[in-house]
Amino acid sequence: RAKSLGRACHKVFDRTMHLRAVELLHLETDLRRAIERQELRLHYQPIVSLTTGRIHGFEALIRWQHPERGLMSPAEFIPVAEETGLIVPVGLWVLREACQQAQKWQKQFSTSFPLTMSVNLSGKQFSQPDLIGQIEQILQATALDARSLKLEITESVMMENAESATKMLLRLKALGVQLHIDDFGTGYSSLSYLHRFPIDQLKIDRSFVKRLGADDESAEIVRAIVTLAHNLGIHVTAEGVETAEQLTQLRALECEYGQGYFFFQPLTEAVVEKLILTEQQWSESCECLTSELG
Ligand code: C2E
Ligand code: MG
Ligand code: MG
Ligand code: MG
């Protein structure tokens, strides 16, 4: 009996495995064509200064408009892209598109400071030897000032091989781009390396921000991260800000920037353009009002 049960389980297992393999294969084939078929999209989530309340820049977040499956989130295909190596061409597409968009917005809207663009780099991309040359080429082709580009690399990717990561980070830094550690607090950083990494900012993982206000421990963790960053002479962005209470606490903890549904969702290019225009008109009318009053 046990034997036949075992065999039945085996069958179910095989079948599931088989279905999954077939599904992955389909996804891979589709993804391979997605770039040329122009199915990839970028959405842009505003990053807000917690001191002025103004938009400081955007994070580019990939989506895939799949012909049958509809709009897919990165969680549904980035892992496949990583496994198959397709993340390299996909990642280059993202970099080129995001840099082009940032340059266009900078030209179109003259804000008092240049809007920045944050782009996520996967572990595979980060270990590509020709990454530097490719980024250099993209910056040149899009005429974007390197300082406006912020590359986000997760803490775990940096820590995986901290020695070679340091070398790569130094080469990236030499291009003039900014380097941010994404999902900070989840990857067990060694403090000695944090000192050696030439990084410009930490992004606190949203799991800590989420529990702000719910338990004291999270506030202590966020405080520790902000203090650590300030001691390193760098700024902090809080990810996943969803409530006014979280915002109040983050401001009290002197966190510089915030990103989350409380401010904005990731937005399409068209919506961002309306948003920047509205923000500009609003700040101009504030200036008029102040000069009239003064
Ligand atoms: P991430 O870089 O940490 O990006 C932040 C994620 O949090 C985004 O999810 C964003 O939509 C979501 N988010 C923002 N505010 C809130 C909030 O208030 N509450 C909640 N619950 N979530 C919020 P998204 O767009 O689904 O991206 C997920 C992850 O996929 C990203 O995490 C990043 O690791 C990866 N990813 C996205 N685009 C790219 C890309 O172009 N290249 C690579 N390699 N990875 C990407
Ligand atoms: Mg466009
Ligand atoms: Mg990110
Ligand atoms: Mg993150």
From TrEMBL:
Residues 24-280 form the EAL domain. Transmembrane segments: none annotated. It comes from the Bacteria. This is EAL domain-containing protein. The chain holds residues 677 to 970 of 1007 of the full protein.
